[in-house]
Amino acid sequence: LPFGVVALAPDGVTDVPVGAGALDASSYGAADATETPWIVGLVVAPPWRGQGIASGIVAALEDAARAKGWSRLHCATIAGEGVLVRRGWVRRGTADDGRHGLWTRTL
User: Contacts from 68-71 at CB under 8 Å and sequence distance 24+?
Assistant: First the structure.
């Protein structure tokens, strides 16, 4: 770790990056060092939102974590909750700042 994914414009013509995300050993909200890995830095450019790109990035990161032998994945987010819910993640609490939701998915 870290391991990253970049989504390119889905037009099949240009190689313009429109989104990205990564796996890292820890993140904001981690209880301890055994709570690993985490999805971090998930972002999709505003004109490309609502087209399933974030879901594709999360799916690729879930697959990568599974391939590396992890059975659980974590994420702390303010704005990405919709994609996590649609992908079967479970909210397990709120970070100390009162804003970030803490999410987990069994792979």
Answer: 68/3, 70/36, 70/37, 70/107, 71/106, 71/107
Q: Which long-range contacts (CB under 8 A, 24 or more apart) does 86-89 make?
A: 86/55, 87/55, 87/58, 87/59, 87/62
Query: How many angstroms separate the CA atoms of 34 and 79, rounded?
Result: 25
Residue 65 amino acid letter = A
Pairing, β 17-24 against β 101-106? unpaired
pLDDT at 27: 80
Q: Which amino acid is at 104?
A: T
Rounded Cα–Cα distance for residues 93 and 11 (Å): 38
pLDDT in tens, 60-105: 999 999 999 999 999 999 988 999 999 999 999 998 889 999 999 9
Residue whose tokens read 């987010």? 77
| Closest by CA position to 19, among listed 36, 42, 52 | 42
